[in-house]
Amino acid sequence: GIQVEQSPPDLILQEGANSTLRCNFSDSVNNLQWFHQNPWGQLINLFYIPSGTKQNGRLSATTVATERYSLLYISSSQTTDSGVYFCAVVPPSGNNDMRFGAGTRLTVKP
Amino acid sequence: DADVTQTPRNRITKTGKRIMLECSQTKGHDRMYWYRQDPGLGLRLIYYSFDVKDINKGEISDGYSVSRQAQAKFSLSLESAIPNQTALYFCATSDPWTAGIQETQYFGPGTRLLVL
Q1: Per the CB < 8 Å rule, is A41 touching B88?
Q2: pLDDT tens digit string along B36-79?
């Protein structure tokens, strides 16, 4: 099956710093989403981005489908950005079987 | 009110017991999913359903069963719980008709299950 690798596994930032999270996937995809899991376990949709670039406030994402990777940018990080960021992809099998990476754990210190 | 709800939010049970986790949604979506998350890992798909007459196994279906009682309800059962089923369980929904086959999945708040 498709493999999804996220890097780095852990990231510690000082408040106000910028960061880039990476997601590599081993095959073509129909769907790619970025999620934030907050410290209480809640999963929040950030972006649906199978290709191209999107921005939402301090967050933006870029997926280069032909090169099989996606990047999530966080600018001017805040302590509320802490948590785990997951990349999830759906291969073109038609079953919408979403496969998750292991996540990047982000800690933003005040 | 939340679009995707899960009950219970937390559950402690003993080995061998049968338990049911329930998911309800008000989004009007046809597709529903159950995932589990183990500490330090991403989510893995257990079962999914594309409509009330459709049930499909996911990546890790052994030891689980599901029931799609209505478009809005999708239940996950552990027939005889074992300790390695201790995990955080998520329900999700999606609707293929909003964007062709490339639909977004929306997740419930999760159920924390501890099997002793």
Answers
A1: yes
A2: 999 878 899 999 998 898 999 998 999 999 999 999 999 999 99
Question: 3-state class of A87 per DSSP?
Answer: strand
Q: Is B59 in a helix, a strand, or coil? A: coil
CB A35 within 8 A of CB A86: yes
Structural element, H or E, at residue B36 = strand B31-37
Question: Would you list which residues of chain A are within 8 Å, Cβ to Cβ, of chain B?
Answer: 1, 4, 30-31, 33, 35, 41-43, 45, 48, 50, 86, 88, 90, 94-103
Question: At a CB cut-off of 8 Å and minimum separation 6, what does B90 contact?
Answer: A43, B6, B34, B35, B36, B37, B43, B107, B108, B110, B111
- Report the distance separating Cα B108 and Cα B6, nearest Å: 6
Distant-in-sequence, close-in-space partners of B111: CB < 8 Å, separation ≥ 6 = B6, B7, B8, B9, B10, B11, B21, B88, B89, B90
